[in-house]
Amino acid sequence: MFAVIKTGGKQYRVTADDKITVMSLAGAAGDVVTFGDVLSLFDGATTEIGAPLVAGASVSGQIVEQDRGPKVIAFKKRRRKNSRRKRGHRQDITIVRITDILLNGQSRRPVSAADVPSAAPAPSATEAPAEAVAS
């Protein structure tokens, strides 16, 4: 199960528990963000493609870190003119961990065994431990 979302003028293919680097978003580490511009949803059995967006779909994530990207150097030189210019730039970025893909308010994330509590019965108070019975 994955979705294609649009944010910051770019498109990203995301699944649950992915970490993506996007243009700077407002918020601090730990804040929840919601991406409403879902272009398409792909499941093993179904495919939903929006025109231009999938109605009722959203992707939620949690901000992991506010950071700055790598330094980009813009160097210009005009030959035989003794003219050159060097400038650097670092873009603000946000690292987001995708938590869930929602369609009409319902999660599209497959349920794993770790998410479901175990159905093993707890020992009752009337049963004695095995060591006490043997003595």
Question: Please, could you describe this protein's structure?
Answer:
The mean pLDDT is about 85. The chain is elongated, with a radius of gyration of 25 Å. Strands 3, 4, 7, 10 and 11 form a 5-stranded antiparallel sheet that branches. A 4-stranded antiparallel sheet has the order 2-1-5-6, with no helix packed on it. It is about 5% helix and about 50% strand. It has one helix at about 130-135; strands at about 1-5, 10-15, 20-25, 30-35, 40, 45-50, 55-70, 70-80, 85-90, 90-105, 105. The chain has one domain. With about 140 residues, it is mostly beta strands.
Keywords:
about 140 residues; mainly beta; four-stranded antiparallel beta sheet; single chain; about 5% helix; 1 helix
Question: How are the SSEs placed, and which strands pair?
Answer:
Elements: E1 2-7, E2 10-14, E3 19-23, E4 32-35, E5 38-42, E6 47-49, E7 57-68, E8 72-78, E9 83-89, E10 92-103, E11 106-107, H1 130-134
Antiparallel strand pairs: 1-2, 1-5, 3-10, 4-7, 5-6, 7-10, 8-9, 10-11
